[in-house]
Design a protein that fits this description.
Its EC number is 1.2.99.6. The chain is an alpha+beta fold and 214 residues long. Helix content is 31%, strand content 13%. The protein folds into 2 domains: 77 residues, Ubiquitin-like (UB roll) (Roll); 91 residues, [2Fe-2S]-binding domain (DNA polymerase, domain 1), CATH 1.10.150. The model has no long low-confidence stretch (mean pLDDT 89).
């Protein structure tokens, strides 16, 4: 019977054997699994987007990862639309796209080529306030004012959505005309956070505009 072989596998021995095998097979030294295929070329990093913003034709070249919010603020200098959470949770960045309200921090600018954008700058001026802006002032619907542009944009959209018959989670009878109630307004405005806590005054402002425009 042959005596047992005294063999010990060491890391250096294993690496040397692996390298020798790879070289013998004509493979790269860094590993047998590698290939010489060239990387797939990437597409363009930026795009030129044409937007109609507050009734004005605008053109902007942005990185493809740029959000609509950053395109408005950083490229078009429309800083009324605010950056709050940057995660679509606070509503400070609310603006309208083709008439529908969106959280602009969650939408890429390149997705909106040819779209119509409305920001807070497009609905009124200090000399000629929009009815909703005037109601917020009259009812003290803001304190620090940071969330106010998004609140006003959403508030105007809420009235239009109800009158268009678009139901919410609290709408009861889907076959009847939707009433503009406190419950409907609160539900539809729930995506807009006011850290100062001016919710009662915001509700009063929206109700006032709804009644005056009935």
């Amino acid at each position: 019977m042959s005596p047992p072989i005294d063999f010990e596998l060491r890391r250096r021995t294993l690496l040397a054997g692996t390298t020798a095998t790879a070289l013998a097979a004509g493979l790269p030294r860094s590993g047998a699994a590698q290939t010489d295929s060239a990387p797939t070329p990437a597409g363009p990093d930026s795009s030129t987007v044409k937007l109609t913003v507050n009734g004005e034709q605008r053109e902007v070249t942005v990185d493809n990862r740029t959000t609509l919010l950053d395109a408005l603020r950083e490229h078009l200098q429309l800083t009324g639309t605010k950056k709050g959470c940057d995660h679509g949770q606070c509503g400070a960045c609310t603006c309208t796209v083709n008439g529908a309200r969106v959280n602009s921090c969650l939408s890429l600018a390149v997705m909106h080529d040819g779209d119509e954008i409305e920001t807070i700058e497009g609905i009124g001026t200090p000399e000629t306030l929009d009815p909703m802006q005037a109601a917020f002032v009259e009812n003290d619907g803001f304190q620090c004012g940071y969330c106010t542009p998004g609140q006003i944009q959403s508030a105007r959209a809420v009235i239009e959505e109800i009158r268009a018959g678009i139901p919410s989670h609290v709408t009861g009878d889907l076959t009847a005309e939707i009433a503009i109630t406190d419950t409907e307004i609160r539900e539809r405005m729930s995506g807009n956070i006011c850290r100062c806590g001016a919710y009662a005054n915001i509700l009063a402002a929206i109700t006032q505009v709804a009644e005056e425009s009935a």
